[in-house]
Design brief:
Number of domains: 2
Oligomer: single chain
Helix content: 55-70%
Structural class: mainly alpha
Largest sheet: 2 strands, antiparallel
C-alpha cells in the first residue's frame, strides 16, 4: 500500500512534531543544566524550530524517495513472480487428450495442432 504525498507529510509532521517537544524538554531540563549553559526559552525555541523544519523536509523527501523506489521494485518483482508462475503452471490434464488421428496431445475440445482433426 502506498502513501499519498499528504499522508507522508502528515506522518512526517507528527513524527517530527513529537520529536520537537521531546528535544525541547530534554535540552531545557537535562542538557542545559548538565553543561551549565545559559539559554533563553526564546533562543531555545528558535533553534529547535529551525532544526524541526529541516527535519520535516528531510523526512518527507526520504519517505517519498523510499516509497517510490521500493514500490517500483516490489511491483516489478511481483509481476515477474506472476509471469514465472504462469509459465511454470502446467495445463490442466483434463483439457488435453491424445488425438486418435496422430497420437499427439491436443486440446479437448478443439483442433489438434499436428493433424488438424477436431474433437468434441
Amino acid at each position: 500500500m502506498r502513501q499519498t504525498r499528504l499522508e507522508s507529510f502528515v506522518e512526517s509532521c507528527l513524527n517530527v512534531g513529537s520529536g520537537f517537544v521531546v528535544s525541547l524538554l530534554v535540552w531545557r531540563y537535562f542538557v542545559v543544566p548538565y553543561l551549565g549553559i545559559t539559554v533563553s526559552w526564546h533562543t531555545n525555541i528558535v533553534v529547535t524550530t529551525i532544526f524541526t523544519v529541516v527535519s520535516i523536509a528531510r523526512g518527507f523527501i526520504w519517505r517519498r524517495l523510499f516509497n517510490a523506489a521500493v514500490h517500483k521494485r516490489v511491483h516489478a518483482a511481483l509481476q515477474e513472480c506472476r509471469m514465472v508462475r504462469a509459465m511454470l503452471r502446467p495445463a490442466p490434464v483434463e483439457t488435453l487428450h491424445l488425438c486418435p488421428g496422430c497420437n499427439s496431445w491436443a486440446p479437448f475440445p478443439g483442433e489438434c495442432p499436428a493433424c488438424g482433426r477436431f474433437e468434441r
